[in-house]
Specification:
Layout lengths: L7 E8 L6 H11 L3 E12 L4 E6 L2 H14 L2 E6 L8 H11 L4 E4 L4 E2 L3 E2 L6 H9 L3 E2 L3 H7 L6 H8 L4 E4 L8 E8 L2 E9 L9 H14 L4 H16 L14 H4 L2
Parallel strand pairs: 1-2, 1-4, 4-5, 5-8, 8-9
Antiparallel strand pairs: 2-3, 6-7, 9-10, 10-11
Length: 261
């Protein structure tokens, strides 16, 4: 018996051979979250879950060439952008995506540093952050990334509130202290929702931010509100974090397996 059509989503991200982060992690998440995921490679990395050696970047023209036939053939409603070489080229990429699919929604997971230990980007200029975020539905930075994106703010929370005037911000709480990990959603300069799960003794996972942002994109593509998508995405990610004691998490096939972490 055939299944009903799934929504189409697109990940523009780096290729991580370990499968913990980037395109492979995104597509695993998309599949388990009930959407059909396309992948456009923005970078080829040489890494494992604990070591980063080097990266080969894809030029913007090649990124567009990969995405063009997919956007021409399929109705892609949502896209996620992860690792890219040039933050200065992000506005051009966003304008191009919207020219191909005017109604597309875009979530940016600002990968500024690899969890395996490699700095990709210094903090961009505030004017660039504002220009990029105005074209987005959501950004999903962790606390160090948020501080790097908006260093004029005294705290990551203050930075998230400021940037949420341009687009919604989900400030991830994995780098905070305490027995619980809380992600906070900001919109229009204020906090609107919190999403909390227990902090696990072996919960650190390579690529957890990729999984969360991909899970949120899948929820949005399935018709969930932003708050609902953040909540269900957090729940799915919590199950991946709890799946084993290594740095590479396992994904889950059935919706009920992550509905109540």
């Amino acid at each position: 018996m055939s299944q009903p059509p799934r929504p189409y989503v697109l990940s523009l991200a780096g290729f991580d051979p370990s499968g913990g982060a980037g395109l492979l992690a995104d597509c695993k998440t998309f599949e388990q979250r009930g959407v059909y995921g396309f992948g456009v490679c923005t970078a080829l990395t040489v890494q494992s879950d604990v070591q980063f050696e080097r990266v080969q970047w894809m030029p913007l023209a090649d990124i567009q060439a990969q995405a063009r036939p997919l956007l021409e053939r399929f109705g892609v409603g949502w896209a996620k952008i992860g690792l890219v070489e040039s933050l200065a080229e992000l506005p051009e990429l966003l304008r191009w995506l919207r020219a191909q699919s005017p109604a597309i929604g875009v979530v940016w997971d600002p990968v500024l540093k690899a969890s395996a230990g490699y700095d990709f980007h210094a903090g961009p200029a505030p004017e660039l952050v504002a220009e990029v975020c105005t074209a987005l539905a959501l950004i999903t930075p962790n606390q160090p990334e948020m501080r790097r994106l908006w260093p004029a703010a005294a705290t990551a929370e203050e930075a998230a509130a400021v940037v949420s005037a341009y687009c919604s911000v989900l400030l991830k709480g994995g780098h905070a202290e305490g027995s619980e990990a809380t992600d906070v959603l900001y919109q229009n300069g204020r906090e609107v929702a919190r999403f909390t799960t227990p902090r696990l003794p072996h919960g650190e996972k390579h690529g957890s931010g990729c999984v969360l942002s991909a899970a949120i994109v899948a929820g949005l593509a399935r018709g969930e509100s932003l708050v609902e998508a953040c909540r269900s995405g957090k729940a799915y990610t919590a199950r991946v974090l709890a799946s084993n004691e290594t740095l590479l998490g396992y994904h889950f096939q059935n919706e009920h397996e992550y509905a109540n972490p």
